[in-house]
From TrEMBL, chain A:
Protein localization: Cell membrane
Source superkingdom: Bacteria
GO CC terms of this entry: plasma membrane
Record's protein name: NADH-quinone oxidoreductase subunit J
Function (record text): NDH-1 shuttles electrons from NADH, via FMN and iron-sulfur (Fe-S) centers, to quinones in the respiratory chain. Couples the redox reaction to proton translocation (for every two electrons transferred, four hydrogen ions are translocated across the cytoplasmic membrane), and thus conserves the redox energy in a proton gradient.
Cross-referenced Pfam families: Oxidored_q3 (PF00499)
Topology with respect to the bilayer: Multi-pass membrane protein
Automatic annotation (TrEMBL), chain B:
Organism field: Sneathiella chungangensis
A GO molecular function held by the record: quinone binding
Gene coding for it: nuoH
Function: NDH-1 shuttles electrons from NADH, via FMN and iron-sulfur (Fe-S) centers, to quinones in the respiratory chain. The immediate electron acceptor for the enzyme in this species is believed to be ubiquinone. Couples the redox reaction to proton translocation (for every two electrons transferred, four hydrogen ions are translocated across the cytoplasmic membrane), and thus conserves the redox energy in a proton gradient. This subunit may bind ubiquinone.
HAMAP family the record matches: NDH1_NuoH (MF_01350)
Top-level taxon in the UniProt lineage: Bacteria
Protein name, entry field: NADH-quinone oxidoreductase subunit H
PROSITE patterns named in the record: COMPLEX1_ND1_1, COMPLEX1_ND1_2
Keyword Oxidoreductase tagged: yes
The reaction(s) this protein catalyses: a quinone + NADH + 5 H(+)(in) = a quinol + NAD(+) + 4 H(+)(out)
Location relative to the cell: Cell membrane; Membrane
Amino acid sequence: MIISTIAFYLFAAMTIASAFMVISAKNPVHSVLYLILAFFNSAALFVLLGAEFLAMILVVVYVGAVAVLFLFVVMMLDINFAELRQGFLQYLPIGGLVGIILLIELILVVSGWVLSPEALDVSSQVAPLTSGLTNTEQLGQIIYTDYAYLFQIAGMILLVAMIGAIVLTNRKRAGVRKQNIATQVYRRPEESMAVRKVEPGQGV
Amino acid sequence: MAEFWDFYLLPALIIVGQILLIVVPLLVAVAYLTLYERKVMAVMQLRKGPNVVGPFGLLQPIADGAKLFFKETVVPTGANKVLFLLAPMVTFILSLIAWAVIPFDEGMVLADINVGGLYLFAISSLGVYGIIVAGWASNSRYPFLGALRSAAQMVSYEVSIGFVIVTVLLCAGTLNLSGIVLSQKGDLGLLNWWFIPLFPMFIIFFVSILAETNRHPFDLPEAEAELVAGYQTEYSSMAFALFFLGEYANMILMSGICTILFLGGWLPPADWAIFTWIPGVIWFGIKIAILLFVFIWVRATLPRYRYDQLMRLGWKVFLPFSLLWVVVTAGFLVYFDKIPA
């Protein structure tokens, strides 16, 4: 028990510290690396909660895929970050305002303010968990059985977003030399090679 | 004080002992894999291979290790020192921690977790960081190009690896690696293993792990003709050795995963007495050694892929095919009511 408490405070502190470093690090590549550290610590917190499936998915999706793309883009971009930082004080009030609103909302949720009895009913209706199953199976039942249609709709929205992104950024470029693999595979030496006897002083 | 010893210190010591029992033989295996590779390649190319240090060159890996150890670690000017030294460590550590969930025999596993398959997938998808950070921190052109190539390549092939794992999971009905091996147990021995019903996926998985470990014919990140040595260009001494060890440990790890998913893990190929006498660990080792032989065989035989061909193979051939095969497998299981409980 003591160990898990110590582990919780360690991981929680690390998450907050690395999240702070994400926004305060000078070098954007360092920011992304701190972001990855934050993801890892949140995954560890999930493990402490007994949600090992969510922990692994967090690492696979965010660290293994999303953060790699972030790192990719940040490394390739050539932005003058000192220039970007100049507007910091100018945007501080509005950023602070957003932060305060978020904080107030969180306090409202956590302190259990109830606006109407119906709202209380809704918030207490958590999806029932079948005991005796691992959390992977429980999640699978809830997502793919109970809420299969909602899940399908979410998938369709993501698909539309993906196709939209491809359509918006895809442009036909002239003069690109592409290899047609089928043609390449069907090539035979007789069609593409000729052996000639070259007479001295005459050339082909 | 006695309570502290019983509940915290003793279990911790036992776990450390188990970790050493896995890591030390693994590092020896890595050292001798380099010799295995050189010897096998030499035979394939009608040479003798290393034969000077020790009998049959058996001490060659130790000599190589000692040589690397006594070299000077050079950190280039302009390199990001912390990240430059962190990158090889990340590669090496990631290649070791995945072994925590690998079952060597029935019950012979450090952490028998429920989501073992996902854990392995997560760890193998992190391998790209060591390389990309190394390329960036070197502050040099060739390593950076090599790192970018490698990142793109590993991300592309992970997708089809994920789908292959999903197919096996559908058939096995569990994410636990021991469970996956036990699902291949049956009267038919070898014919019960998943590589028979899922043969196309077995091939895709093997080709994808070649790409994932940056081995021939997909070794574009370190294509010496174009990129000097890719992301390793600026590394020397132990930092280089860590990359090297990491790469070879990853080869063994990926062969191990392939063995667990498709070749029945520790199970003997037939239920005959002479086979069942041999312990499961030995069978597991033999299967890994066979897959590693294929790794080396491919290296000695095939020329390197061109970058666009590599991307085409990953995204336009493997991804649609493995996606289709997931749907076909799932449909088959549902239609014939064969979904494992």
